[in-house]
Request: fold
Amino acid sequence: MSKSDKNHNHSHQDQSKKNIKIAFFINFIFSISEFFFGFLFNSVSIMSDAVHDLGDSISIGFAWFFQGYSEKKQDERFTFGYNRFSLLGALITGVVLICGSFFMIYRSVPRLLDPQPVNYSGMFWLSLVAIALNGYAAWILSKGTSKNEGMLNLHMLEDVLGWIGVLIVSILMNFTEAYRLDPILSILIALYILYKTIPEFFTTMKILLNGSPENVNVKSLANSIKNVPAVKDLSHFHIWSLDGEENALIVTVLIDPSDIDKAREVKEVIAEIAHESSVKNHITIEITTSKEELEKGYSHNT
Reply:
């Protein structure tokens, strides 16, 4: 990796930590405020959202910690480095989002049957402040590219949509006192968040389970390697993602014994093919001249 690439990655990591830190403080401070105003306005929905936002804050705090921990250099304990620790933050955030959405549905259904009056004037002004704060946090996180920032952006999006619903309901209740609109909107928002979060959750799980990267055509990459001049066959072809952004590749290729002097050239060509297929920094290519060694994964020293 060149010096400019390292500086770019370092700058990107610093910005990710800064974005997550801002989201954490916005969510934590506002969730505490929600408990106070929920009690003041006698609003069960605001109190429920306060519980949900506090859960968000806890998961964002974890994500903040893991984002920094993931930047530790490789050592004898984790020879690939600590990149994957950032995925734990994304996974915890996904779990909290999914559980929180089901909790919103659970609390909203009874209020469809027995709607409760609330201080809609207080809800109106609080929702304006909430939309501004959460909208700012969502805008910051939308600029990030890490899995953590992507999942946390869903947090902020959920809160923005939720408070837009509160704003609309507060305006409508001011004229009609149709309190049943509040739980209806809450259920719709929860279903939308589940629709957006569950695929992201399973994508994160796939990375942790060493699934093939989404941005790599595995079959095409394998065929391109097979088509390299002097390559007769390949085995032990493994490709996975370290953290959703960096990919790794290991492959053993078979060449004819008469082409052993071309081994270095073959490796360079395969490395270039891998680089063009979004595998940039972690490429291991083994060369063998024996079919038996190919099947066992042995390599010829070159």
Notes: The chain has nine helices and three strands.
